[in-house]
Design brief:
Largest sheet: 2 strands, antiparallel
Shape: elongated
Strand content: under 5%
Distance between the termini: 89 Å
Structural class: mainly alpha
Main location: endoplasmic reticulum
Pfam family, one: TRAM_LAG1_CLN8
Pathway: Sphingolipid metabolism; Lipid metabolism; sphingolipid metabolism
Radius of gyration: 26 Å
Strand order of the largest sheet: 2-3
InterPro entries: HD, Homeodomain-like_sf, Lag1/Lac1-like, TLC-dom
Membrane topology: Multi-pass membrane protein
């Protein structure tokens, strides 16, 4: 049974054009070809990436956050309350009004106190600013290095300048050592993102990020199996060209696009932009966002569909009849392009707010007017309390069921 499934999975007609077999891609005369077994190494490399990431965030990103004066926002903790905690953990973090009234009777707290408790409890679960900064720093560092390395891999290749060269001699195209390592590192990194996605900062496009990471891993792996390596390196480098910007700005505080060979990570606002936003460098992150938005739209909505996808859809048919691998690869490209359109929509919405002066915290164009912040459409915004009790807490310490705990900071009267 297993042998039958194995044979069906690796049937040549699924992966290769007609009249070609796996025997045509066996190493010979010093020419090395991609093999499925090459990808086994990406799993241990992914765990190695997680270790390197931990060390980087601890010994590089955290001190950097201190140098950039990244400050944590003081959060009031929800007072211990078993009744409310049980509902929060097992039923809902956002109780309806009827639930609030019922919990008010069960816990002996006023309705307003129950609402305040849930706001504070939700804020406790939100990731800290330092955690966001460390994640953005790690992704920025990887994407920047990956982009530079990717360009070094392809800039001297003829198919970088003439896309018809991508298919010259396909699939009998030997693999270069630089292509091997570029693939192994990119695929390992995306495995590490998928492994850590449950513990990373979650945003509103969490499901889209999962789809993106899975689609990216499938595309990288499939392009390796089918020897679409030349096209794969072009696609990876194209996505890497904008991802590192995503981590240094937020939309003027933003998300994680993704990228990878098939895109990207995972969207709206540059990693560099996010880093500067967390550090409070508003003008810098706003201006980086402008650059990021331009690069993202040009690469993902112009170059990718009208050059790269045209190359993968049209040119192969000049050499071979369409086969399953051809349809599957281009279908996955369409899936990724759909995610690009979704993220571009978010970017354009934020850019519109940015240009028309509707950004939260300021007005106008960042080059001309005071600093502002364009709210990331994917961000999980922290809830605030402007009540008198909150102001009282800031002066006299934490609240317990809506009442300040005395700490001798109040004025004594005779």
């Amino acid at each position: 049974m297993l042998q039958t499934l194995y044979s069906c999975f690796w049937w040549e007609r699924l992966w290769l054009p007609a009249n070609l077999t796996w025997a045509d891609l066996e190493d010979r005369d010093g020419r090395v070809y991609a093999k499925a077994s090459d990808l086994y190494v990406t799993i241990p490399l992914a765990f190695l990436f997680l270790v390197v990431r931990h060390l980087f965030e601890t010994y590089v990103a955290t001190p950097l956050a201190g140098l950039l004066n990244v400050k944590e926002k003081i959060r009031l903790k929800a007072a211990p309350n078993p009744v409310l905690e049980k509902f929060y953990a097992t039923t809902s973090k956002h109780p309806k009004q009827a639930d609030v009234e019922l919990l008010s009777r069960q816990s002996g707290c006023a309705v307003r106190q129950v609402e305040r408790w849930f706001r504070r409890r939700r804020n406790q679960d939100r990731p800290s600013l330092l955690k966001k900064f460390r994640e953005a720093s790690w992704r920025f560092t990887f994407y920047l290095i990956a982009f530079i390395a990717g360009m070094a891999v392809i800039v001297d290749k003829p198919w970088f300048y003439d896309l018809r060269e991508v298919w010259k001699g396909y699939p009998i195209q030997s693999m270069l050592p630089s292509q091997y390592w570029y693939y192994m590192i990119e695929l390992s990194f995306y495995w590490s993102l998928l492994f850590s996605i449950a513990s990373d900062v979650k945003r509103k496009d969490f499901k889209e990020q999962i789809i993106h990471h899975v689609a990216t891993i499938i595309l990288i792996s499939f392009s390796w199996f089918a020897n679409y390596i030349r096209a794969g390196t072009l696609i990876m480098a194209l996505h890497d060209s904008s991802d590192y910007l995503l981590e240094v700005s937020p939309l003027p505080a933003a998300p994680a696009v993704s990228h990878a060979p098939f895109p990207p990570h995972p969207a709206p606002a540059p990693q560099s932009a996010k880093m500067f936003n967390y550090a409070g460098w508003r003008n810098t992150c706003n201006n980086i966002f402008i650059v990021f938005a331009a690069v993202f739209i040009v690469t993902r909505l112009v170059i990718l569909p009208f050059w790269i996808m045209h190359c993968t859809v049209v040119y192969p048919l000049d050499l071979y009849p369409a086969f399953f691998g051809y349809y599957f690869f281009n279908f996955m490209m369409v899936v990724l392009q759909s995610l690009h359109i979704f993220w571009a929509y978010l970017i354009i919405r934020m850019a519109q707010k940015f240009i028309t002066g509707k950004a939260r915290g300021g007005l106008g164009w960042s080059f001309l007017l005071p600093p502002q912040v364009v709210e990331d459409e994917r961000s999980d915004r922290e809830e605030t309390d402007n009540s008198e009790e909150e102001e009282e807490a800031a002066k006299n310490g934490p609240l317990s069921n809506g009442h300040p705990v005395l700490n001798n900071n109040h004025r004594k009267t005779d």
